[in-house]
Write a structure and sequence with these properties.
Layout (H helix, E strand, L loop, with lengths): L8 H24 L10 H7 L12 H23 L19 H22 L3 H35 L3 H36 L5 H26 L1 H4 L4 H14 L7 H28 L1
Helix pairs in contact: 1-3, 1-4, 3-6, 4-5, 5-6, 6-7, 6-9, 7-10, 9-10
Keywords: Membrane, Transmembrane, Transmembrane helix
Length: 292
């Protein structure tokens, strides 16, 4: 087979993505343990400074560890295809050079997201909540675009992957890559809502209770929109994605455990989110069995 130099782009991109991801981990670490130079204040202190009435408990930050571990998992998977795969892939080229089900645009986007996430931590640590919020409104749609691109690419490639006995790649991509991306996008969405609430409360001086209700409504509308799109319209692509529901439930639980018992709205929303999660899981199992 003739050698195509352009095919080394995928391995090079993934190594670059890993380097940028490690850089993001360093920046986030400094965000929690500021050095006083690059980071002025810790992320937890900034959240405490611009406190909202629906502020989640601090244990919710453990989700960051889970999400970035998951993100590292899918990068390691793509790196694994570079280091370990030697069989023929699409169009006769080795699969590590031309995987098809992982488009270069997704890796480019992950690099950009790593940069934007790092920049958000820096801005947030300097109490630049308006600039940080604007940045999130750029980063979050990019992450959903990245997920959409990956979902469409995997859907197109699945028949050929299965025809060459690479069904495992399909499932690993779903579980490691797409679920990892969804976790990150859900985290960004959640952070966007809280950051937006901070801007409204402390820059536009909106009433504290009105701000809390606004943020809660944003959560509700966001998950309801995803639920309808997921179940009714995009099931072919999004059937196996469950992280938006689980993360939303955990964040709402963190809110409930950090507010007075009188906040009935938060408890009601938690019940709604748990109910939606159970429906999603039931439909997923039912449709998967019918597709076998």
């Amino acid at each position: 087979m003739p050698y195509h130099a352009s095919l080394i782009v995928f391995p090079a991109l993934n190594i670059t993505a890993l380097i940028f991801m490690i850089g993001t981990y360093v920046v986030i670490g400094l965000g929690f343990f500021p050095d006083g130079r690059l980071m002025q204040d810790s992320i937890t202190n900034v959240f405490a400074t611009y406190k909202l009435q629906i502020e989640p408990s601090e244990w919710v930050f453990v989700l960051w560890i889970l999400i970035y571990t998951y993100q590292l998992l899918w990068i390691m998977y793509t790196l694994g295809t570079i280091l370990c795969s030697t069989g023929s892939g699409f169009r006769g080229f080795p699969s590590y050079m031309d995987p098809q089900h992982i488009p270069n645009t997704v890796v480019y986007a992950s690099i950009v997201c790593s940069v934007l996430n790092s920049l958000w931590v820096v801005l947030f640590s300097h109490h630049m909540i308006v600039s940080a919020c604007v940045l999130l409104f750029i980063t979050t749609p990019l992450q959903y675009l990245m997920i959409g691109t990956q979902l469409v690419s995997l859907s197109k490639a699945t028949p050929e992957l299965e025809s060459v006995d690479r069904s495992l790649d399909v499932w690993v991509t779903r579980i490691c890559m797409i679920e990892g991306m969804s976790l990150m996008a859900t985290l960004s969405t959640t952070t966007t809502f809280f950051n937006f609430g901070m801007v409204y409360r402390y820059t536009l001086h909106l009433d504290p209770m009105a701000t809390a209700i606004l943020v809660q409504l944003m959560f509700l509308i966001g998950l309801l929109t995803w639920f309808v799109l997921d179940i009714k319209i995009m099931d072919k692509f999004t059937r196996y994605i469950v992280s938006p529901y689980i993360v939303t439930c955990l964040v709402q639980l963190a809110i409930v455990t950090n507010i007075p018992v009188t906040q009935a709205l938060s408890y009601g929303l938690l019940s709604v989110y748990v109910f939606m999660t159970l429906i999603k899981c039931s439909i997923l199992v039912h449709r998967h069995r019918n597709s076998e």
